Structures are given as structure tokens and as C-alpha cells.
Amino acid sequence: MTDQPPRRRLLPAPQRAASILRAAARVFARNGYAATTIEQVAAEAGVSKLIVYRHFNSKRELYRAILDQVRDRLAAVGQPTRPVHESDGDPAIQAAAAALAGTFAVARELPDGYRLLYRHAVREPEFSDYVRELGDAERERIETLLANVADPLIRAWMAGLVANATTEAFLVWLDIGHLERDDEMVERVAYLLAGMVGSLWDRAIARGEPVGPADASP
Q1: ∠ Cα 29 61 41 (to 5°)
Q2: d(CA 174, CA 157)
Q3: H/E element holding 122?
Q4: Tens digit of pLDDT for each residue in 107-148?
Q5: CA 22 → CA 15, 110, 135, distances in Å?
């Protein structure tokens, strides 16, 4: 009786697709979209090219599926809805920290997809508009939280600054941080953002400028 090679355990289709997505995110993050091939994705996932094509019709569809996965997971994270006010203090910071923790949990679970979305895809010609639309939606959401800032120019600027600072803080932490200190990092980011927003009100009050409501007449 001859020894038979062990049979590969077949994964259910959803698990196989998820495995391919994780492998593809790693390859795309290393090589970029144009330089990545389906053969490289298949090798990273430990499957044949045919198996990849059973789940995804093209390289573009695969790339888009990674971006959609991260986007959908981020959209499901609960966010504060009440506009921030300078007198809110620690309760507002704790609410922000809870939302940031949910967001970073997605980044920690899907690190290569998160990097792909915010560090790489915006420079890929086929996907830059898609990523910019996501960024615009995020800045609009933050502007809603800053509705008590009367000056629309300052409000838009602050929203962009908060969005960019948060994303960059998370990306850098993914690169250099330690899993066991994630909570500390999130809390530091929350206080950093609170300081940024608080300094706006301090400066406006010192100059006698209006700080809210946002729909006040200029």
C-alpha cells in the first residue's frame, strides 16, 4: 500500500474568497496595482490562478473588492452624531475615542486593505476618483460634527485636518505600533484632535469671532 499525499481541505466559497482578498491586499500593497498579476495573487494565496478567477473576474474587480470591504467595514462603525461644542470636555473626548477605537479595529483587522485604501489607491489612476469620493464623504461627516464652527472656510479646513490627521496616525501606528498599546494610541489621538478643535474656539473667542451656530449670518 503506497502512501497517498494529504488531500487539501476545501474551504467554503466565502472563506476562500476572504483568503484571496487578504492575500491580494498584501501583494497590491507591496507592488501597486499595475505591477501586480493574478499569478502573484494566486501564489500568495496558495491557490491556482483558476481558483482566483472563480471568485473574481478580473484584477480590477479584485482590487475594488478589497477597497469595498474596508469601506463597508468602516461605514458600519458607530460615530458621534451630535455637533461638538467647546464646553463638552471629557464626555466628547470619550465619545470620540470610542468611535476612533472602532475605526482602528477595522484597520488592525484589515491592515493591508486599510493601507491600500488610504496610502496607495489614491495614486492609482483607475481608483483615485473612487478614493477621493470616500474622503469627501468623511470630511462632510466631520463638518457635521463641527457644525458649531460658524466660519464655513475654517469648518471645512478643520474637517480635512481632522480626517487626514486621524488616518495618518493610524497608518503610522500600523507600521510601528504594538498591538497591546492600541488603546493608548487611540486615546492619544482623541486628545490630540480635541486639542486641535479646542484651539479653534480659544482663538475665535480671543478675537471676538463667532463660534456657532454654523448657520449664523456672516
Answers
A1: 45
A2: 26
A3: none
A4: 999 999 999 999 998 888 888 888 888 888 889 888 888 887
A5: 11, 8, 23
Is residue 112 within 8 Å of residue 25, measured between CB atoms?
yes
User: What is the residue whose three cell numbers read 463638552?
Assistant: 88
Task: Report the chain's mean pLDDT, rounded to a whole number.
Answer: 83
Q: What's the rounded Cα separation, in Å, for the pair 16 and 12?
A: 6
Alpha carbon distance 117, 14 (integer Å): 22
* pLDDT at position 205 over 90: no
Class in CATH terms, 13-66: mainly alpha
| Integer Cα distance of 48 and 168 in angstroms | 36
pLDDT tens digits, 54-99? 999 999 999 999 999 999 999 888 777 666 655 556 677 788 888 8
Rounded Cα–Cα distance for residues 174 and 169 (Å): 9
CA distance 50 to 40: 13
Percent pLDDT > 70 in the chain is 80
- Is this prediction's pTM over 0.70? yes
Residue type, 124: E
Residue 169 C-beta-side C-alpha neighbours within 13 Å: 21
In Å, how far from its chain's centre is CA 169?
A: 11
Euclidean distance between CA atoms 112 and 23, whole angstroms: 9
CA dist., res. 160 & res. 154, Å (int): 10
C-alpha pair distances (Å), 21 with each of 3, 80, 130, 159, 166: 34, 30, 19, 31, 25
